[in-house]
# Entry
Amino acid sequence: MQINTDLLLEELKSNKSQRTKNSLDKLNSLLESRFKKGLKDYSIASIGRASKETGGIGTVSIRNKSGQHYCLLIDAWAAKANTTMKKPPAPHSRKNDIPSDMDLLKRLDDPALRAVFGQIIAEKNKLKAENRILKQNTEVIIDNRPNQVTQAKNTASSVEVIHSLKKILVDSEIEALKDSIDETKIAKRGWCVTENGAIKNEHDRTLFKVGFINAIQKVLSQVW
# Structure
């Protein structure tokens, strides 16, 4: 943003005591240095702490009613850096996190859809937990000895039978699944379906992750 901070500084120093002028000059030098470094934190707490460390004014002096000229100068540099005087969230802040499955589930207005997707999420979490346990209990032995034949003795094998989904879901739940991937209805909500089977809202935020559409279609292929 094109802001003439030099002109603003001169205006703020007008009719001020020499002590205040010196403080404004020090503060301006600090702000200019942060701007050149590409820093985005122009909060009063951060600026006041950095200023105090270099022998300038502190946070209290900026927050006081008599320190309005300091705030105006900080705000100008913040605007020049395309940010505000609000402290930006930390990189690990939850504000930057992708919404969890449960957060997305709460956004569904249809109780039937919530019930069905709640079951899908629970099953997915169960499978992930089982997969994690299997990985922890898996031991891999690499035998590099030539011409060595190892024969397993007394090895028991088991087969897990996966029951059909047709007896698990009732008609209303099947209809709810079909409705959830109806592209016409998705479009009416202002959402869109990506090539990878995810669903995004009008702000391009992911509501349902990659593979969601494909997963529902696979479920429907077993019950419909």
Summary: Residues 139 and 155 are 16 Å apart (CA to CA).
